[in-house]
Amino acid sequence: MIRIEKNLLDSVTSGAKSIPRRRKNYNFHRQYSDTLQRMLNAMEPLSYIQPHKHEDPDKREVFFALRGRILVVEFDEHGNIREHIILDPLKGVYGVEIPEKIFHTVLSLESGTVAYEVKDGPYNPIDDKNFAPWAPKEGSTGTREYIGELLNKLGV
Questions:
Q1: pLDDT one-digit tens code per residue, 22-40
Q2: Which of 28, 53, 113, 154 could join 108 via S-S bond, C-beta 3.0 to 4.6 A?
Q3: Whole-prediction pTM
C-alpha cells in the first residue's frame, strides 16, 4: 500500500523550497519504463514549467490538487490562452486531465502546493515533452516576466 499523508507532502514541499528550481517530484512508479507514471509534484510560486505538449509519443496528463492552489493553462499552437482552471481542493475543484497534443503549463499559486500527477508512460527525457517555441526556456531570463504576464492576462 502506498500512503499519501501529510508527512510525505511536508517532506516533498520542504525539498521543493530548498532548491533553486522550486519544484520537486516524488515518484511512485518504480521505473521510467512503467506504462503509468505517478508522482507527487511539490511546487512553490514562481517555479516554472515551460509550456509543452506530449506528442509523438502522445500522452495524457492528469493533475489533482492535494494541497494549495494550482493554475493549469492550455494554449493553442501560437501561444494564445485557450482555457484555464485553478485547482483548489478547498473550493471543490480537484483535478484536470490534459489531452495529448495540447500545449499547457502548470503554476503554483500558493506556497506548499502539491499535486498528484498521473501521466502515460514510459518516460523518456528525450521525447517526453515538446516545448513551446514561443515561451522562455526553464532557467532562462524572462521566465518571471512570462509568469507575471500569464497571471495578469487571467486576472489571477
A1: 999 999 999 999 999 999 9
A2: 113
A3: 0.95
